[in-house]
Structure formats: C-alpha cells, structure tokens
Request: fold
Amino acid sequence: MRISVIGCGYLGAVHAASMAKLGHEVVAVDVDPVKIERLAAGEAPFFEPGLPETLAEALASGRIRFTTDMAEVAGSTVHFLAVGTPQGPTGAADMRYVDAAVASLTPYLTAGAFVVGKSTVPVGTAARLAAEVSAAVPGATLVWNPEFLREGFAVQDTVSPDRFVYGVPDGDAGQRAVAALDEVYAQALAAGTPRLVVDLATAELVKISANAFLATKISFINAMAEIAEVAGADVTALADAIGYDDRIGRKFLNAGLGFGGGCLPKDIRAFQARADELGVGRSLGFLAEVDAINLRRRAHVATLAGELLGGSVAGRRVAVLGLAFKPNSDDVRDSPALDIAARLVELGATVLAYDPAANHTAARVRPEVETVDSAAEALRDADLVLVLTEWAEFRELDPRVVADLVAAPVVLDGRNCLDRDAWTAAGFTVRGMGR
Ligand code: UDX
Reply:
C-alpha cells in the first residue's frame, strides 16, 4: 500500500520505517531538513533499540523515502499524522503542529484517501479535523488510530502491538477506512492482534485514558512509598504482594522517582485541561494529585541526598548514574533523573553525571550538569552515589569495585533496582525509595 507519514519524531520515524519493513511504499515527511537528511542516510535521530536496523532494512528495500516536500505525499492512499502535541503554556496540548500538518496535507489529498491520526490529541480534535478534511476534499476521510508505543520498545510495539484501535465515522467511509487500515496492518492482524473499531471520540480517549491510568498506577505506588517510609514498611514487598492479585498486576508498580518522558506528564495535564474545557474538570481532579505525588518524588530525593550527607549537599561530591527518563532511551524530556541532578547542582553539590545514552541530550537542556564518559569516572571520590535511571549497566555494577572508587560507601537507589544485600555486603549504606 502507498503510505505517507507526516512527522518523523519518535512516533513517525519508527512508524515509517516499520511500515516500509512490512512491505508498504512509504513517503515520510518532516519540516526539519536535518532530521530528514539523517534519516535518509540511515541514521536514527535518537536512541531507540532496533530502529537503526529497521531503518537500514527499509532503505535497502527501496520502499521508503524521506522528504521535506509535502507534495511527495500525493498518490498515497493512507496518510498518517504523527506530529507532536507538546504541552502548551496552560497545560493544554499545543495543537499547532497537528493543525499545520493537516493544512499542508489537504492540497494533496484526493477522493478516496484516508488521513489517519496517530498523535495524542484532546478529545474532539478528530471530529473537528474530519469536518475540515471532508469540506476541503469531498471523498477524503479522516480517522483516528492512536499509537501506544513505549520508548525503548517502539519498533516492537509498532510491528506487533497489544491491540489496534480504529476510530472511524459511521457509514461507508468508515467501513472503507477499516478495510484500508486492515490492509496496512495485515501481518499483525493475521497473527491475532485484537482490533477494536470505535467512534472518533472513543479512539482519542482510549489513548489518553490509557496514559492517565498508567500515570495513576505509578503515583499510587509512590504514594504507598511515602506511607511506607514513615511507617517503616517496604513498598517493593508491598507491590509484589498486591501484584499477585491479577486484577491489580505487578507491572507499573515500581516505586521510585516517578514518571517522566514525552508522554505521561504532559498527557495527564492536557487531559485535565480538556476536561475543564468540557465542564467535567472534577472527573479528572485526581490527576492533579497524581501529578503532585509524582513531582514530590523529585524533591524527596534531593532531601534524602542532603540527609545522607549529614545535612547538606553543598560542596559535596555526588555521582549521578542515569539522566534519561527511563533506560534504553536518550530522552530527557521531563526526566526525573535530570531534574534531580540539576537541583543538586543548584543546592551547591559537585555533580558528576553519567548516562549510557543521554549525556548529549542532557547537556543540551541542562548544561550546568557536568557529564562524564563512564560510571567509573562519575563514581571516583564520590561522597554519595545516586542511581536515578535503572540501566542494566548500573544494576550490574559490582558494588565491591564501586566501593574502591568512591570516597564514602553511601548509595541512594532512586529506582529500587540494586541488589541491596550485595551492596550492603560490600560495605554500603543503601537507601531505597519507600523501603
Ligand atoms: C508511555 C506509555 O507507556 C505508552 O503506552 C505511550 O504510548 C507513551 O507513553 P513511555 O513514555 O515510553 O510510554 O514510557 P513508560 O515505559 O510508560 O514509562 C514512563 C515513565 O514511568 C518512566 O519515567 C518510567 O521510569 C516511569 N515508571 C514506569 C515508573 O516510575 N514506575 C513504573 O512502575 C513504570
């Protein structure tokens, strides 16, 4: 099938490369010429496991081309919208990229073409854009097909997702859209991936409510961590125990620094803002608390670091291991780890930070946080070690080797990811989160 993908960020680049790999003819468009040049040269513009290989395969097949020229999308049957919806100044989603993408795409649409939204948008957006598209090009149809990919597993989540959700209008146009998307996703559907056909508003809500639920789950366990800390309980044992109830489940119950990244934080704020606009703000009032619990974790780590250093971090040497918002990513958008590193710098600590992938992205937004090229360099002569992103490289550190590098054997495990017994046996004072 001839496909276009508008927007080549985390979502679009992975989607475009994966679609070409599946056998479709893909034109991928972005307004950023540097990004397009790199992608066309087979270079992934961000760290994402599996993307370089998928991109290489797609380029070698001759089935993908990258361009800044929207005119090249002409002739595609399905046009995926994969541009960002960042947080605007009021917390509401900034819709300017989505609106601009639709406006620049419309002149190249033909009757029978489908515009398929993938971006996370405020509920009601799809209906508004659908009206615009069909008014401009009778016979063209806009539908919504949200994406649930996780960074670090983006290729896998695109090629074989948990489920497909198609938000389509009633009637023939909707049926034709379902048939077109079924052709796009034929391989995964044949393998038994569930597919739900719903209306436009439901499709938009599925995406944002899934993220709101995940954020709530994480803040729930972090609230339990706050209680466990004062009650002398262990939140990881609590999570294991409640997680055996399969109505609850153990996934996304890891207490620690809380959530960050390009999705969960901005999505809960945008969802709240949209509910307010719709006059049902109270329904999502709890999301303000979810956000507050989440942000308290960061402040708490800074306080704990001071306590572990006998009252203040000022003038002390702190090794920060991890800057990315999660492992297997170089993404530092709203990263709790980077935020904490910057707070410690502000409090007068001498911070040496190391992340296996995110040093360069961190340096761009927080140049005051000094980064080094290895964990050993960060650890040398440290008065305190902070583990802030649970990369395998940190989980697998030999505490006996670390003990020989640091000035004082004290570690704050911000992600409860270290083997506490091994670190204690190596002479460390180990402080976890909620334990
Ligand atoms: C998320 C959703 O999972 C995905 O479905 C959606 O499409 C985009 O947003 P992503 O942002 O890649 O994906 O990250 P995710 O794996 O969900 O983690 C988000 C944050 O939550 C990370 O900072 C992670 O460290 C944190 N987290 C996750 C916890 O603190 N505890 C947990 O138990 C799980």
User: Anything to note?
Assistant: DSSP finds 18 helices and 14 strands in the chain.
